[in-house]
Design goal:
Layout: H1 3-9, E1 24-36, E2 49-60, H2 76-88, H3 95-107, E3 112-121, E4 131-138
Antiparallel strand pairs: 1-2, 2-3, 3-4
Length: 141
């Protein structure tokens, strides 16, 4: 969802994650759907369920125009691989916990200034397309 879409579909105003004046780029992963062992209810303990994850990162541009080198950018493929590694560690009770772990992983990269993470369970509530949480975390000075 683009910045403009967020304003028209929700009463939540999100700050832009890309900013030319501050030399900040926006790196994102949209609608990554995977299976996770997640949930507090007994019927969720020994099963996997579908989750959708969105990640928005505000990334400092530390090298002039990245020099067309993958090592000079935050790689979205690495973000997805790290999300999968977090999920593979085992059962997580809360979507909030999964979102925090993903944000922490992202912020651990020195180039990442801020992370917005949205985790949705797609099968948790009958009649709802999804339920979940969205968080935003900033690097501590």
């Amino acid at each position: 969802m683009s910045h403009d879409d967020a304003q028209t579909q929700s009463n939540i105003l999100h700050l832009p994650f890309a900013d030319a004046a501050r030399s900040v780029r926006h790196v994102f992963v949209r609608d990554f759907v995977t299976q996770a062992q997640i949930g507090v209810w007994e019927h969720e303990k020994d099963t996997h369920q579908a989750v959708r994850i969105n990640v928005d990162l505000s990334v400092a541009e530390t090298v002039d125009h990245h020099e067309d080198q993958l090592t000079n950018v935050v790689c979205y493929n690495d973000i997805v691989n790290n999300i999968q590694a977090i999920i593979k560690t085992g059962h997580i009770n809360l979507v909030e916990t999964l979102a925090e772990k993903i944000a922490e992983m992202a912020i651990d990269d020195d180039r990442v200034i801020a992370a917005r993470v949205k985790v949705e369970k797609l099968e948790a509530v009958e009649g709802a397309a999804s339920v979940g949480v969205e968080i935003e975390r900033h690097k501590r000075p």
